[in-house]
Amino acid sequence: MSTLAHKLKQAALPLFMAFVLLGIWQAWTTLQAIPEYLVPSPWVIAKTLVQNWAVLSSALLVTIKITVLAFISAIVLGVLVAFAMVQSRWIEAVFLPYAVLLQVTPIVAIAPLIIIWVKDPTASLVVCATLVALFPIISNTTIGLRSVNPGLAAYFQLQKASRWQTLLRLRIPSALPYFFAGLRISGGLSLIGAVVAEFVAGTGGTGTGLAYQILQSGYQLDIPRMFAALVLISLTGVAVFVSLAALSRWVLGGWHESEMG
Hints:
With 261 residues, this protein is mostly helical. It is built from ten helices and no strands.
């Protein structure tokens, strides 16, 4: 029971702080009579979210679709590249500079080219978001696959384990904590990449995401709807992080010290 109470307390404290901050925000905009077109109050944002739910919810689904597809693509590509780099230092020397190059290149600089080269709008946005989310998977998984206990590695060699057996029974379990840490980073970056790619694309129509709703609201000076779209993006990012943290705790909680206790 004490463990349950501790978990409830941990969940209640951030919620309490959120209510306090929202209360301060509401009081400030009300007492100072701040115009809605400058800074809308939380109550106005909530009403706008309800009134425009049909449009914003469909845009949210588009953004989530791009985020999920980019996240899955980043996981598959990142794990494959990490496995390849672990097999040989020469392979790592070939691939790592390009992985770093993708990480340090601003996506806004190359997104227009990708949108031109990839004709399908959804595919182009997924490619942009994947490039943003790819490096943490590669980096963390590679470090995890190399972070093997020397004593266990010597034991596997003593038992004449094959490279495949060593990979499955030693390297992959040792890499899981690093891999899930990379997932938590990459999940948020997938959402950021999707939103930035939507901003760069700037296309209208029915299949647009929340970034286009923000742009359109800015052009129309509909600031409450802009804030409502920002709230949905923020809540989506929190949901992604919490889901991945829960998945990490479920997989690692029974045996790894990072998630025990």
